[in-house]
Design a protein that fits this description.
Length: 424
Amino acid sequence: MLDIKFIRENKDIVQEGAKKKRIDIDIDKLITLDDERLKILKEVEDIRGEVNRVSNDIGRNQDQALKIQLIEEMRVVKEDLKGKEEKLKLAIEEWQKLMIQVPNVPDISVPDGVDDEQNQEVRNWGDKKVFDFTPKDHVAIVEDLDLADFGRGAKVSGFRGYFMKNDGALLFFALWQYFLDYFVAQGYTPMLVPSLVRKETLFGTGYLPQGEEDLYKTQDGDYLAGTAEVAMMSYYSGEILEKESLPKKFIAFSPCFRREAGSHGKDVKGIIRVHEFFKLEQIILAEASHENSARLHEEITAHVEHLMQELILPYRVVVNCGGDLGLGQVKKYDIEAWMPSQNKYRETHSSSYFHDFQTRRLNIKYRDDEGKLRYVHSLNNTACATSRLPAAILENYQRADGTIEIPLVLRKYMGGKEFIKKIN
RNA sequence: GGAGACGUGGCUGAGUGGUUGAAGGCACCGGUUUCGAAAACCGGCAUUGGGGAAACCUAAUCGUGAGUUCAAAUCUCACCGUCUCCGCCA
C-alpha cells in the first residue's frame, strides 16, 4: 500500500511505475475517487461537528423545553447525516479497492521488460563444471542413490509429493545448520515461525488479495504460508519499534506451501517445484531511508553469494525486470544456480526490498529523531531453500561413478563424510 | 468442546451515558536547584485525516465492526484476541 498523499503528489511517477510493472491501473481515476471521498468526508465532518456542539449544549442546559426542542432539531439533522455517512462508506470502499491495487514504484535501476525472460544478468560467479560424462539430472541422481522417494511421495502426498531419505535427508539438515550458523554469526536472530497464518498476515505482506489461488486455505479460513516472510513480517504488526533496535535482522525457518496453480506442466519431476518445502529466509526491518534499504538489499544478496561461493556452486545474479516484480517490490535480484542437466541457471534465491509498502499495511512504525512516527522499511531474501539448493548441489557435485562429492563446508554437518554413495 | 473473566495512551492504571482525548503513576522532554549528578519541585508530553504560512481550528480513534441515543470508553449485538477453570489430546 502506498500513501495517498505520495500518490497525489507523484501521480505520473506512480502511473509510470505501474506501467513498468505491467500492471493496469488508472491513477487519475483513483485521484478522482479520492477527491470525491474528501468532499463527502468534509460534509460528514461538518454535520458531526454541529451535532457535537448542540449535544454538549443539551447536556449543560437546564431548560427542559429548550432541551426537547434541540433534541428534535438534532433528530432531523441526524437523518441527513445517516444518508451522507452511507455515501461516504461507499466512497471509501471504492477508493480502498483501487488503493490496494496500486503497486509500489520500481527503482530507476530496474530494467524494462515483460517477464523473467527479460531479467538482466548483473554478474556471474564460478566455472560451469565440464563433465567428461553425461551428467544426470537431480531426479535420476536421487533415484539412483535412493536419496528420495517420489513414487511413495505421490502415493502419500499427491502430485509433487516426495520423501527425502538417507543422505538426501541429511543433506537438507546439513544445509540448514550450515546456513543457520552463518547467519547467527552475522548477528541475525534465529526464528522458527508458523506456516499456518491468518488472512491479515497475507494481506499485510501483499500476497492477498492477488495471490489467492496460489495459497492453501484451511476450513477455518486460515492459510498455509508460502514463506516464513509472512509470519515474520507480521510478528511486529501494529507495534511501534525503538529506533535504536533497527535494523532488526531475522533468519526465519519454516515449512513453505505453494499450490503452484498455473504451472502444472513445469518441472513435473523432482524437487525443483514442489507443493511443500522448507526454507530459511532473511528478513530485515530497517529505518525509513531509501539509501539504507538499497545498501541492505546489496548486503542480503551478498550474504547468499558468499555462501554460494563457499559451497562452490556456479551462479549468476539477475536483476528482475519491471514485469517480473511483485506488487510491493521496489527492486529484486534473483540468484540462480547453474543446473548442468538443464544447461541453464535456475532460481534458488530471491532478494527484494519494499520500502514501507508492507509495513504500511501491517502498521509497523518507529519514532524518528524528530519524534515523528514513520513506517519502517522491509527487505527479505531467501537464505536456503531446500529443495532447490540441494538439487543444484547434487547435479554440480556428481561424479562419473554415480556418487556425489559432498561440498567441503558441509562435511562437518554430515559426520565428516566425503561422498554420498548408494546404501545397499 | 463447555463455563467464566477481561481487552483504555510508550508502559501501568482509573473511568458504567453529557466539555473525558480520557484522572493518577512510570517512562520521556524542558526548566529551577547543584561545581556536576541524584533527589525534590515547576512545566510539557497520543495518533490519524481535513483546513491554515503559522498560531491554531476541526473530525475520528478507549480490541474490530454494526446498533441504540440529541449525546457512547461507558448500553446492546456480532466478530477477533487474551487469561482462568473443566473436558479432550499429547
